[in-house]
Amino acid sequence: MDIRARFPPTPLAPRLARRMLLLPYTGLMKRRLRRARLSSNDFVFGLHDSGAMHLDLVLRFLDRLPEGVTEIYFHPATRRCPEIDRTMPDYHHEDELRALSDDSIRQALLAARIERIAFSDL
């Protein structure tokens, strides 16, 4: 099956609407973090693609990362289970794990000199 059929792109209008709804909240959160002198990521990729972070999409994200600290949003899992299916029935958790584990991701990170870090590294 064609990967585009399994993971159709989210239309632009809903993405923009969600972004506009989140802007006040994210702005407030950033101000609070700065005031508390806490470090955080500068960008988030994959929020609108949650549950559908397949290999091609992740590679496209890595190719377009801005300067700064970026969080890439995943929900990987090794298998389906009733607890997850109740709240995330349309997510492709195993595909996300396969994408994260794929050697082409490691190669793309090395080629672009992207450093993987944990929040504790900030």
Work out the helicity level: 40-55%
Low-pLDDT runs of 5+ residues are none
How many helices in DSSP terms? Answer: 6
Amino-to-carboxy terminus distance: 40 Å
Q: pLDDT average, as an integer?
A: 86
**Strand order across the largest sheet:** 1-2
Helices and strands: which structural class? mainly alpha
Mind explaining what this structure looks like?
It contains six helices and two strands; from the N terminus they run H-H-E-H-E-H-H-H. By secondary structure, it is mainly alpha-helical. It has a two-stranded parallel sheet with strand order 1-2. Strand 1, helix 3 and strand 2 (70-72) form a beta-alpha-beta unit.
Please specify the SSE layout and strand pairing.
Blueprint: H1 3-6, H2 12-35, E1 43-45, H3 55-63, E2 70-72, H4 82-87, H5 93-101, H6 103-111
Parallel strand pairs: 1-2
